[in-house]
Amino acid sequence: MLYFIAGYLLKFILSLFGFIKVYQKENLPDKNGYVIACTHSGWVDILWLGISILPTKIHYMAKKELFQSRFLKWLMNGLNAFPVDRENPGPSSIKIPMRLIKEGEIVGIFPSGTRTTEDVPLKRGAVTIASYSKAPIVPAAYVGPNNFKELFKWKRPKIIFGKPIYLNKELPKKEALDLMAEELNTAMKDLQQKIS
């Protein structure tokens, strides 16, 4: 319940700075149980990604530091986030998202692993989770304000979704993972250029 209240409240507040334009939403699978991998250049893109597919919920991977205080832990849990130790990722980094996907949920991951506007190689988390879960990855890209200062520039936020990427089962596992990672990297770059 907290997720929907927060989601629609944020949608109203952020829309005061400009309504989001969502492209190619039809690329999202009809059935749940997949990974959305989105570009990441600021904290605002996390909010807009979630808002863009309401009332469908996204479960986010979040750094464990955000769960240290009682209030933040309550808030993050209410927003369907789960903790990950980015320095020393353990089995839960894979098990929790795998369980969610198998339950038909959507897991949101920012593969660059950091907020940046630079071209950085994608980390393998999204690809690994998708392959173990036998689920597709939907590439996504965000262009728009990234912080409070940029919100007041009234730049219209845009999100675009690409076609789902599936693991090639005909290839050996390592080659298939490498290919999936390469396809994801290319798709996210192409999507970002398309709406920039």
Can you give a write-up of this model?
The protein is of the alpha/beta class and 196 residues long. It has one domain (2-195): Glycerol-3-phosphate (1)-acyltransferase. It is built from seven helices and seven strands, in the order αββαβαβαβαβαβα. The protein has helices spanning 2-15, 43-52, 70-78, 92-102, 125-133, 148-151, 173-195; strands at residues 21-23, 34-38, 59-63, 81-84, 106-109, 137-143, 158-161. It has a seven-stranded mixed beta sheet with strand order 1-7-6-2-5-3-4, sandwiched between helices. Helix 1 (2-15) crosses helix 2 and helix 4 packs across helix 5. The longest helix has 23 residues, at 173-195.
Write the layout of secondary structure elements.
Elements: H1 2-15, E1 21-23, E2 34-38, H2 43-52, E3 59-63, H3 70-78, E4 81-84, H4 92-102, E5 106-109, H5 125-133, E6 137-143, H6 148-151, E7 158-161, H7 173-195
Parallel strand pairs: 1-7, 2-5, 2-6, 3-4, 3-5
Antiparallel strand pairs: 6-7
